[in-house]
């Protein structure tokens, strides 16, 4: 198993013997505690799955290690220490770290760290204030300030919630959970506490309008429509607290008629309707706005519809550890109990932030990816309403009928189809990847199936849709120089030099203006190296010609 945001491996030498570094281990424990807790395996190297076969962990040494860690970190719960024997006979120490739900974990010298992705980073300045506010935010769901009991709730809302949970597919709600009694299910999803008091989360889902209105910071949504001059022409506001989160989302989608507008794009002799904002994208955006917002501030969720874009704004920054450039990959939950109810009732996917689904649906319709603005005190997500490229839509429609794409593949293909040709660094940036080498997993089988072509090496690699894919889709697309296969580009340069021998590199580029100077230079240099093209002496004014 690879390291992740809740799973860490440390070498035996880090914990025991003369090379032990207990302060560094304490820092790791603080990191995990300030995130979502996790598992620490001591005795396994980072690049290994198992400990050395002859490695043994002494129980007394393990006890002394736990004592040392307890003295080097504060507000960290260390639990369930076990010496595990691996299949190869080697031993390692497994240690559970509880999440610090309402307090901030620190090292003994007062330093704060947090697990961000696969790295442990210090938390300072503004991020420290955000962490402190989120710790208090974690508790909003589970508090019960109104002292309401189950018999005071809305019976219809209780029936609806229990029905949705019991009807949920098994990958959302397990058969074991469904076998629980009604009261056990309500307690399982933290709607009711052990003492019988209904939590804020329970009021949000099961309460009467009056009870919801008394929530200190409830769920209020504003829906605003603007014209071309950005003057507001319509406003809807859900202020009466009549609806639970699922009914609220559905009512917004019903009353927000502007959300249902669509473009018509050619599809052979017919025309296909492509929604400006796919329904699955809208549902995921609103569910995320409800689930990840801060419930310790009175700011409303705002939906703004402009002629050219949709903006969904919710109070609070992205959860600490997630940024606009990592949102596709990071998995950090702010309101854990709330999200579990959203998943059980089908309101949202439940895993991660749902942005992988948003990326998939937008890429599938050849639409621009979302823009994330995490400045100030609110999170704003922008979806463009522009019409998609008809050729890209037709290509993706055709290919989807013959290939069963994985989610990563359709996202990658959608980006490439819209761009025509794209370099490895730009594609990696669009996919929020830190290294171009990881592109291979996102390209998947697109190269193997010859749907996408690659030319160049390393950072100079370019990806483009295979012209044969356009032909197979019966699309009359004339390949430009940017989509020419390498051997055709080579032949084009050779023909140009035959017609205009002794040309400067700049002169070749001027005649082949659709292609970048860098592409021409790379191919000409290759042709010189393999003896196809010759050159004059000198560097500044070197001229090129085809060799006989």
TrEMBL record:
Keywords: ATP-binding, Nucleotide-binding
A GO molecular-function descriptor: ATP binding
Schlafen AlbA-2 domain: residues covered: 3-123
Ion transport in keyword set: no
Protein name, as recorded: ATP-binding protein
């Amino acid at each position: 198993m690879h390291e992740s945001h809740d799973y860490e491996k440390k070498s035996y030498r880090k914990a025991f013997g003369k090379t032990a570094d207990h302060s560094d281990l304490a820092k790791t424990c603080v990191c995990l505690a300030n995130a979502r807790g996790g598992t620490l395996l001591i005795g396994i190297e980072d690049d290994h799955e198992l400990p050395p076969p002859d490695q043994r962990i002494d129980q007394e040494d393990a006890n002394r290690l736990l004592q040392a860690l307890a003295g080097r970190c504060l507000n960290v719960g260390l639990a369930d220490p076990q010496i595990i024997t691996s299949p190869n006979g080697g031993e390692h120490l497994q240690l559970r770290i509880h999440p610090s739900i309402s307090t901030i974990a620190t090292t003994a010298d007062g330093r704060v760290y947090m697990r961000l992705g696969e790295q442990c980073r210090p938390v300072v300045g503004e991020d420290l204030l955000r962490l402190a506010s989120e710790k208090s935010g974690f508790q909003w769901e589970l508090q019960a300030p109104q002292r309401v009991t189950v018999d005071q709730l809305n019976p219809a809302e209780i029936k609806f919630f229990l029905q949705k949970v019991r009807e949920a597919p098994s990958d959302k709600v397990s058969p074991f959970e469904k076998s629980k009694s009604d009261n056990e299910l309500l307690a399982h999803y933290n709607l009711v506490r052990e003492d019988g008091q209904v939590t804020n989360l329970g009021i949000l889902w099961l309460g009467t309008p009056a009870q919801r209105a008394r929530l200190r910071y409830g769920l209020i949504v504003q829906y605003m429509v603007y014209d071309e001059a950005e003057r507001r022409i319509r406003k809807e506001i859900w202020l009466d607290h009549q609806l639970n989160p699922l009914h609220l989302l559905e009512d917004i989608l019903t009353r927000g008629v502007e959300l249902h507008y669509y473009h018509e794009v050619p599809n052979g002799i017919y025309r296909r309707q492509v929604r400006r904002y796919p329904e699955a994208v809208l549902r995921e955006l609103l569910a995320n706005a409800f689930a990840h917002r801060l419930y310790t501030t009175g700011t409303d969720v705002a939906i703004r519809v402009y002629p050219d874009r949709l903006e969904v704004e919710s109070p609070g920054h992205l959860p600490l550890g997630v940024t606009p450039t990592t949102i596709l990959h990071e998995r950090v939950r702010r309101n854990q109990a709330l999200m579990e109810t959203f998943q059980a009732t089908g309101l949202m996917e439940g895993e991660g932030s749902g942005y992988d689904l948003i990326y998939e649906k937008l890429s599938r319709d050849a639409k621009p990816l979302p823009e994330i603005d995490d400045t100030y005190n609110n999170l704003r997500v922008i979806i463009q309403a522009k019409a998609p490229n008809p050729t890209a839509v037709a290509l993706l429609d055709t290919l989807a009928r013959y290939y069963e794409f994985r989610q990563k593949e359709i996202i990658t293909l959608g980006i490439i189809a819209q761009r025509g040709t794209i370099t490895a660094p730009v594609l990696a940036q669009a996919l929020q990847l830190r290294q171009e080498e990881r592109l291979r997993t996102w390209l998947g089988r697109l190269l193997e199936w010859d749907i996408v072509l690659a030319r160049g090496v390393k950072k100079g690699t370019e990806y483009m849709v295979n012209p044969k894919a356009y032909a197979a889709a019966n699309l009359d697309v004339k390949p430009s120089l940017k989509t020419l296969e390498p051997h055709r580009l080579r032949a084009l340069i050779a023909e140009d030099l035959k017609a205009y021998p002794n040309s400067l590199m700049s002169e070749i580029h001027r005649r082949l203006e659709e292609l970048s100077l860098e592409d021409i230079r790379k191919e000409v240099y290759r042709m010189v190296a393999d003896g196809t093209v010759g050159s004059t002496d000198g560097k500044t004014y070197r001229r090129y010609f085809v060799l006989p």
